[in-house]
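S.,

Sequence below, as promised.
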Amino acid sequence: MSDQHAVDIPQTEHPAPGHDTDRPGASAQETCPHRPAAAPQSSAARPRRRGPGTFTLLVLPGLLTLSAVAGVLALTGGLPDDRTPGDSPRQDAVSGVNATYGPWLRKAADACTVVTPSVLAAQIDQLTGWNNDTAGLSGGQGVAAFTDEEWRTWGKDDDGNGASSPTDPADAIMALGRRDCSLARKVTDLRTDGTINGDLVDLTLAAYAVGTDAVTKAGRVPAAAKTYLTEVKALFAKYAEFDREDPSGGAGAQADAILAPPVTTLTITSPYGSRKHPLTGVTKLHTGVDFGAPQGAQVSAARAGTVVFAALTKAYGNRVVVDHGTIEGKRLETTYSHLSRIDVTAGQTVQSGTPVGRVGSTGLSTGPHLHFEVIYDGYYTDPRPWLSSGG
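The prediction came back faster than expected:
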């Protein structure tokens, strides 16, 4: 301590900065080494002044630098994560996710209409809480918890940094988008042919959690997937800011009357909405409108488009699906079910009024009628506002 106490600074009544005044057993001289003496000392008794010692020259500057760094870290929240893509570690104020992830979430969701940026973000939150160092129970790596086997299927070098890695958040987000969109296409096909029923986002998440085979076997979201589904959907609102468009698929928006009547007389025998199915007894969403019509009456395309499905299904019987392209950037499709016969083939171009089949009672049906659906951006919606002449 002699070197430290011999620093040539003005005398004061208070301890020098950095001295430990609470050390047990410290003497008066140690706690306040520059206190004036009680009486004048002779020149012989006065201690000789010395220059700065080793501690002052070598150690003290390092301690001051460390103290300054610690203060900066305390104010800024720590060192930036060098795995964060982009030049800035800025965090989004609402979601708490690094702002540079937003463009990757949007790009990944562009691969299909069912998956939105908020869906991808909510999945990642549920999987790892955006912790890139957390490995899942299955041995997954990175923010999206991909296993090595899964990464071989879905992983790519999407950010062009020369390496494809599940611990690169940009690569992981894009890979999750590819995987989800693949599942979305599968469940869309299954729902189109009547094998399963339900919301496409719910079915896609369920397929991610338990596989498409389990969804197909259940015909809907299986019980085993409901906990995962509930947890992910609870996070949608947190990440809604990342969505470019309304993720509801336009639900609730007033549609323009741009569809021609698919049958001559629009007599509604069962409207769109929740109902108890007359054959199965299950209460669920009636995804379209039933128009009463005689057996064999002509059924026509409601708008120009391309037939994307025309075949016999278990639940819908003979079913035709027509893709009408996009309306305000969102895909519009119409379906015609329980037909007694089909008059078009997949891939065929149709115009408004082109015959697509005949009214029947095939599939799960109690009598001749047309089950007509409107699917807008992957979501069922009430057909009546879309029709130029309502029933």
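The domain at 268-386 is CATH 2.70.70.10 (Glucose Permease (Domain IIA)).

Coffee later?
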